[in-house]
Amino acid sequence: MKIKSLLFVIAILVSQACGTKSGETEGETTDTNAVDETEAVTEEQTSLNTLSEKEKEDGWMLLFDGESSKGWRGYGKDNFPSDWQVVDGTLYMAASGRGEAGSKNGGDIIYDKKFKNFDLKLEWKVSEGGNSGIFYLGQETDDYDFIWKTAPEMQILDNERHPDAKLGKDGNRQAGSLYDIYPANPQNAKPAGGWNQVEIIVYNGTVVHKQNGETVVEYHLWTPKWNEDVAASKFPGLNENWAEVAQEGYIGLQDHGDDVWFRNIKIKEL
């Protein structure tokens, strides 16, 4: 009986040893990281034009759902221009090849709500040689046919090809800049066809432009320095009161006659 019992114990030990794979040690999980990475990629791929639970809790609001033009209309219009399209989860303006607002049923578009203090985030990309812009604190009046005559503009541009990149002063017409006033520094825009992540923060006159994770512009509205810098730009010749930017206004996207795409447009009121 003792010999049989000893043989039985040995058999159990051998069986347990064979159950451990070669190269593994206790507590190892050989493929968990691979599963986690896959889940992370899937989550990233499906997160376009949505808000996370944390963003919802923090008060963020989507301005574009990726499927419709809900909330948007043409500047000076009560409808959404048909030359703007919702394509593959983006707001897309097709090139007219005729310059600013040259399309037959295009033009600048605005979100149909005014904002005062806010944090705005979105992504854009532009075609080769493309030009567009993001407006904020814009006004809609019968006196001005374009929103840029009343609103600061974060420039969108193919810096490598569009001639505007070499105009203005010190690069103040390149991507990320406050157009024709303050240049984006550092200049970190991606080449044509690449997605750029941008952020515009407005709070009681302080304005910040961020581009691809870096602060590239910071300025202060309604100050003597602001009035001086605006006076040196092209805007007083177009609107003598341009420096008197409103405290509250519309957010707009520009039709400059070139292919441009927008997505992940979200805002948090401050």
TrEMBL record:
Region (Disordered) residue spans: 21-40
The keyword Hydrolase appears for this protein: yes
Top-level taxonomic group: Bacteria
Keyword Signal attached: yes
Keywords, alphabetical: Hydrolase, Signal
Record's compositionally biased regions (Acidic residues): 25-40
GO molecular function term, any single one: hydrolase activity
Listed name of the protein: Putative secreted glycosyl hydrolase
Organism: Fulvivirga imtechensis AK7
